[in-house]
Structure formats: C-alpha cells, structure tokens
Amino acid sequence: MSSQPPIGEIQSAIRSAPGVPVIRNVNWGGLKTLYVKEVRRFFKVHLQTVWAPSITTLLFLIVFTIATGAKSPVVVGGITVPFADFIAPGLIISQGMMGPAFANASFSLLVGKIQGTIVDYLQPPLSTWELLAALVGGAMTRAFIVGFICWCAMALYPGVHVTPTHPLAILWFGLLGAAFLSFLGVLTSIWAEKFDHAAAVTNFVIAPLSLLSGTFYSVDRLAPAFRAFSHANPFFYIISGFRYGFLGTADSPIMVGSIAILAVDIALGVLCYQLLKRGWKLKN
C-alpha cells in the first residue's frame, strides 16, 4: 500500500518561489523569540539579577538615611526637600534601573563569544536592528522590573515619599536612562573578549559616573570645577530628570537634559547597529 497521499491532496512545501524571501518586512516571530530568551535568561537566576540589585538599592537608602538621620534638607532648584525624598528617586534610576540594564546587555553577546555559542545570535534569520532591539529590550525589561520593585519598597519605607508628581517625566527619563545603559552594555559586549573587560567598564566607567552624578548630593553645592564635571556627566541629566518626576523640581534644565540624552541614545544606537552589521569582533 502506497504511503503517498492521493493525487490532489499533496500540499506544496514551497510557499514562495526560489529567491523570494519568506520574511518580507519584520521577523516578528524571531524578534519575539530572542526577546523572550533574554528575559527568561535573567529570570532563571532572579535572585541574582532581580532581587540582589533591589536589596542593594534599599540598603543604600537605609544606610544614608540612618547616617544622616534623614533630617538634613537638600535645596533642589531653589526648593528645600527632605534628604530621604531627594535620594530615593536617584537610587531607583541609577542603582535600581541603569545598573541592571548595563549588566544584562553586557552579558548577552559576551557569554556567547566565550562559550562559542555566538552563532546562536548571528545565524537566525534576524536583521541587525531586530537583533539589537531584542537585546536592548530584554535589558530594559530587567531595568523596569527592578526599578518597580525598588519603588514599591521605598513607598513602604517610613519617612520616604516617592509619590509621582509628573508620571510622564518618570517614564520618559526611565526609558532614556535604561536605553542609554543598554546600548553601552551592547557596546561592551561587542568589544569585550572576557569577563574582566566587562568588569573593567563597570568599575572604572559606569560606577564613577553613577556615584558622581548627584545621586547622593545636590551639584549646586559643589565647587565650580566639580560642578562643571557633573554637568558634563550624562548620568546627571538622567537622574535629575527622573527626580523631577517625583519632586516637581530639578537642578538641571529638564528639556535640555531630555534632548541631550535622546541625542546620545540615538548616537549609541547607530554605533551599535553599525558594529553589529559589520560583525566587529563577532565574526572572527
């Protein structure tokens, strides 16, 4: 007995003529698959990737508010605010969101190069921008999850008020900050050849810029030279804008900072795209 189906019931396996691409515009299935892979990757070790940075951020808040008694007010934009209310938004965006975003993005391609599985990123039918969007999207998802946990915990912390005043500013600068560190993480992941390289960027670039950005103090009280350095630090504008969403005041021009960080994000995105497209340090 023949195993072939009757004539007329045979379905053609070829859905398009030879040379005609099946995926014409956006490979939404592939983009979603890689994004879900990136999210599931950090959720598998959620104690390290989600809860650890959340606890660390809360420890910063506890230590600084106890050490100062949470009684030393800070002048921001000519308005005096309690120290605890001043420091909380900066910790959420700098320690709770931007740090995890960089850590997630800087790990993806690097671990593939070290383990020899980089082909899993390069071989699937994904365009360069789809690959970049999935990597950045996964990192930003981790950033917002950790940031949301930190915000919920700080809302319950006595003496701290983190009620949003301008929710759109919080969302906008949260997106700008998470994207900024995600692109930096992708660049690091492309450039680095071992974990020491990524750790060097974290310790000697990300950490200093984060700690010297006005998270724990108002830059208006600094000496002119240090104030100029702070105004050249992109972290300062992200933190100041994010803090504005909670306090309604800031120590930097919100519109100027928004435009500047958006321009930096676009430039970093274009640079990541070009390096991925060329396969720099990826297709050796």
From TrEMBL:
Specify one Pfam family.
ABC2_membrane
- Topology with respect to the bilayer: Multi-pass membrane protein
PROSITE patterns xref list:
ABC_TM2 (PS51012)
Transport as UniProt keyword: yes
From the Swiss-Prot or TrEMBL record, state where the protein is found: Cell inner membrane; Membrane
MF terms from GO for this chain are: ABC-type transporter activity
Keyword Transmembrane assigned: yes
Top-level taxonomic group: Bacteria
Query: Transmembrane stretches, by residue range?
Result: 50-68, 131-157, 169-192, 198-219, 254-276
Q: Where is the ABC transmembrane type-2 domain?
A: 44-279
Provide a GO CC annotation, any one.
plasma membrane
InterPro entries associated with the record: ABC-2_transport_permease, ABC2_TM, ABC2_TM_bact-type
Arranged from A to Z, the UniProt key words for this protein are:
Cell membrane, Membrane, Transmembrane, Transmembrane helix, Transport
PANTHER family in the record:
INNER MEMBRANE TRANSPORT PERMEASE YADH-RELATED (PTHR43332), TRANSPORT PERMEASE PROTEIN (PTHR43332:SF1)
What protein family is recorded? Belongs to the ABC-2 integral membrane protein family.
Q: What is this protein called?
A: Transport permease protein
Q: Upper taxonomic classification of the species?
A: Bacteria, Pseudomonadati, Pseudomonadota, Alphaproteobacteria, Sphingomonadales
